[in-house]
């Protein structure tokens, strides 16, 4: 991509606060964006070949949305924690294996999307994200949903297409959790904590494609209570 094209993009971005350059084969985060740290609110660099998100990302203090889906990122710098206004972080389809501790400092974050990476452990340190609505960890390599999940404030957690065989009963204590997606994992019926059905806020519990027939859920204690919540939520939206 020529310099003139990049220059015109930068000029537009200075006015709009939005920089979008997708599918252009970029191999690195454009250094020129540093000139716009004070007024960029949205950056979308999806569908490129970027391998490194530089530490300088921490200088974009006005950023509300950062999207780098389908690149070649293997990690996220801890400086990302400086982005106190960031509401959406979308890094789907990269090669990320773990998240930096700094991520927990993103106090305004509402959407954290990490589908299709190489994450093998449920990320710790996300309990401080008090406004998190959606945590998308689908299409990773997670095998275990641990006890610390109970501290998450997310309304929806998507864990479809992982390798999960262990699901902590603590998930039923998530204070705001309404939607829990666990399709196409390795769960046995006996691995399903009854408290999710009988004693949680979850009104959509999606478990198709595991090691049991979904209709067997109906035989579990607490299923009636779950169906009450499911039906009440459905009515709200119809």
Automatic annotation (TrEMBL):
SMART domains named in the record: LRR_TYP
GO CC annotation terms, alphabetical: cytoplasm
InterPro entries the record matches: Leu-rich_rpt (IPR001611), Leu-rich_rpt_typical-subtyp (IPR003591), LRR_dom_sf (IPR032675), LRR_domain-containing (IPR050216)
Statement: the UniProt record of this protein carries the keyword Acyltransferase: no
Signal sequence extent: none
Gene3D superfamilies registered for this protein in UniProt: Ribonuclease Inhibitor
UniProt keyword terms in alphabetical order: Leucine-rich repeat, Repeat
UniProt xrefs under PANTHER family: LEUCINE-RICH REPEAT-CONTAINING PROTEIN 57, PTHR48051
Protein name: Leucine-rich repeat-containing protein 57
